[in-house]
Amino acid sequence: MTFLPLAILLLLHISFVCSSLPILNGTSVTTLDISDSSSCSNTRTLWDIIWSCAATLFACTWTAIHPNVPGMDEGKFTVLSRRLGIMMIALIAPEVMITWATIQFISARGAAKAFNDAFGWTVTHGFFAWMGGFMLYFNGKPRATLKPDELLGFVREGSVEMPVIMEADMEDRSKGDALSKGIAILQLAWFVLQLVARYVQNLPMTLLELDTLAVAALTSISYGFWWKKPKDVGRPHAVHWKATASPPSELAYEYVVNILALNRSNSPAF
């Protein structure tokens, strides 16, 4: 299912290129003659255009996507498939990504305000909580991913200790390094400069390039909302249920449906 959106996207983009070929302003799709210096400076091949657009789209979408913390039992293939699926959504419907990022930013800011007075949370803490960053452990086993309001309620009841995690620690868990961000920014800047230069020289551009510019611009908006969100965190922070507290009631994101039933099923029968 992951490759179906990719096939649709490729068909759409190929149609964009083909429809714009008659007006490519001397942008020949044939092989360049390297002995002709003027031809080399003014002529682009079809593959030059496709490669430039594909590199820009990949750099922008791969860097901009900030997925949530994966499940405890999810393997690398599942995580990669989900990331590729999100990339396809970003390429086909970038406005969906903007909506998703905006909702997450508003939720993270609300969680930061709720925890800020007593615990000094920042927006990064709010993002970390809403992306599944806190896992409740009951009797030494993972029980559920905690929502911010559930965590706050359990802390006030005294059922769990408030997890102490600094913003620097969350940034350390994040895999969004400066190198990957810098490469994406440089690729996007180079692509935009090329289009600006062609516009100034009154040279036409393909529909594929215009489509790439639009997708990159919209993806940058999502990236702005996710700027403080930790990127590619692989494991949640453990929150242990106190032994003196009563067992937790029904939770929003149950990891184990019923701990007691699971224990009974694993016990020997007499």
Q: Please outline the major beta sheet.
A: 4 strands, mixed
User: In percent terms, what proportion of residues is strand?
Assistant: 5-15%
SSE string, helices as H and strands as E? HHHHHHEEHHHHEEH
Task: List the uncertain runs.
Answer: 1-41, 256-270
Write a brief caption for the model.
The protein contains 11 helices and 4 strands, in the order H-H-H-H-H-H-E-E-H-H-H-H-E-E-H.
Structure write-up:
There is one protein chain. By secondary structure, the chain is mostly helical. The protein has helices at 3-20, 37-42, 46-64, 76-92, 94-119, 123-130, 148-157, 167-173, 178-200, 207-225, 259-266, and strands at residues 134-138, 141-145, 237-240, 253-254. Strands 3-1-2-4 form a 4-stranded mixed β-sheet, with no helix packed on it. A hairpin with a 2-residue loop joins strand 1 (134-138) and strand 2.
Notable traits:
270 residues, 4 strands
Write the layout of secondary structure elements.
Layout: H1 3-20, H2 37-42, H3 46-64, H4 76-92, H5 94-119, H6 123-130, E1 134-138, E2 141-145, H7 148-157, H8 167-173, H9 178-200, H10 207-225, E3 237-240, E4 253-254, H11 259-266
Parallel strand pairs: 1-3
Antiparallel strand pairs: 1-2, 2-4
Helix pairs in contact: 1-4, 3-4, 3-9, 3-10, 4-5, 5-6, 5-10
